Amino acid sequence: MPPAHRIRLPGPHWLVASALGLLAAAAGPPAARAQAGWVPFPSQASLREVQLAALACARENTAEACARSRSLADPLLDHPRLPVSCKDLLWSLSERSTPAASNSFSRREALVAPAQSLLAVCRTREKPPERRWLRQPEPLGQRWRLGGGRAPALRAWPGRDRSEPAAAGPCCP
């Protein structure tokens, strides 16, 4: 009879089978995993729309303009591909986009400053796809010709035929 303090654990075959199952799930088709989790980066036009709405809220100080600014900024806070610095700006815009009794300079500046830096901070950091050549590039030796677009022809010196060997001169025996 086993002692009461011993707990019976599943055997090592169970552990190996579960580890293999996890590896198989994680190593599934990469295109399917990437496609399921891929979300496009917000366009510059949509970020510009948020910027203009925040500037309108700062300028007009009305409930409609500020509500539009908040409604455009709030969904972007949950975007998975935006950097944290961009989300900080969006958070400050959504928090400060409320109409005030007086449209003071400090209130306007608190909305205008993050709105102006929004496009620079929130742009994508990804490199554009590699450009493909439409035609094969020319070798470097043929690309830069300075003779009007075609290779210069070999010309014979005046008074000498190329088929004859050169006459020995004072410098050459």
Give a written overview of the molecule:
The protein is built from 7 helices and no strands. By secondary structure, the protein is mainly α. It has a domain at 44-121. The longest helix is centred in the first third of the chain and has 17 residues, at 44-60. The radius of gyration is 36 Å and the shape is flat.
Provide a concise account of the structure shown:
By secondary structure, the chain is mostly helical. The chain has helices at 12-26, 30-37, 44-60, 63-77, 84-96, 105-121, 140-143. The protein contains seven helices and no strands.
Average pLDDT rating: 76
**What is the string of helix and strand elements?**
HHHHHHH
- Alpha carbon gap, first and last residue: 113 Å
Low-confidence sequence ranges: none
Topology record:
Elements lengths: L11 H15 L3 H8 L6 H17 L2 H15 L6 H13 L8 H17 L18 H4 L30
Helix pairs in contact: 3-4, 3-6, 4-5, 5-6
